[in-house]
Amino acid sequence: MVAAIGLGFNLLSAWLLGHGHDHGHDHGHAHDHAEGSHADHHGASGEDLNLRAAYVHVLADALTSVFAIAALLAGKYAGWAWLDALVGLLGAVVIGKWAIGLLRETGLILLDSEMDQPVVREIREAIEGDGDSAVADLHVQRVGVGQFAVVATIVTHRARTAEEYRERLCVHEELVHFNLEVQHCRSCAS
């Protein structure tokens, strides 16, 4: 009885979590300040790993509940008491497999090891492509599946705004958050 109630709650939770939504618009804005600029939008190409982990968790719980109910019924009516232990081990393997997959997917995010991505080179090229601008400091962090946040300090001889650099970078759909500081090097200008 308890396993059946648990299964019901797991199925309800899976249904609720599986109906996550994307509201289909972005929130773009940019501000020029003496010290920098911040612009941000949320793309629909990524996936919320927390929501997915919760969804997979309740699905795994539901699946193991189904197996447990079947094993208990088989043990009671067919005398197969050993099936309960086997189903417990099978459930552990299923949950372990899903957990390993999730860890592989999130490991690079958790370890903040995305600086080796080709996107870093593309960001530098987009900013420094005018021959006047230089990237003084650059941090790229993965914030979702195929989504990156950029924090950069840019030095330029000509007066440019953070919005100009943001527009250069917006062609890369995988860049979903920008924090750009532009420093005008007046002493370097000729």
What do you see in this structure?
With 190 residues, the chain is an alpha+beta fold. It folds into two domains: 2-19 and 45-110; 114-188, Cation efflux protein, cytoplasmic domain (Alpha-Beta Plaits), CATH 3.30.70. Helix content is 50%, strand content 21%. The chain has five helices and five strands; from the N terminus they run αββαααββαβ. It has a five-stranded mixed β-sheet with strand order 1-2-5-4-3, with helices on one face. Strand 3 (133-144) and strand 4 (147-156) form a beta hairpin. Helix 1 packs antiparallel against helix 2 and helix 2 (49-78) packs antiparallel against helix 3. It is rod-shaped, with a radius of gyration of 25 Å. The N and C termini lie far apart (82 Å). The relative contact order is 0.15. Residues 21-45 have low confidence and may be disordered.
Brief overview:
By secondary structure, the protein is of the alpha+beta class. It has 5 helices and 5 strands.
**Helical run tally:** 5
The number of E-state strands comes to 5
- Residue share in β-strands: 15-25%
Give the SSE string: HEEHHHEEHE
- What's the alpha carbon Rg, rounded to whole Å? 25 Å
Helix percent band = 40-55%
Shape: rod-shaped
Q: Structural class, from helix and strand content?
A: alpha+beta
Runs in which pLDDT lies below 50 for 5 or more consecutive residues are 21-45
Mean pLDDT: 79
How many strands, what sense, and barrel or not for the largest sheet? 5 strands, mixed
Overall number of structural domains: 2
Q: In order across it, which strands form the biggest sheet?
A: 1-2-5-4-3
Quote the distance from N terminus to C terminus.
82 Å
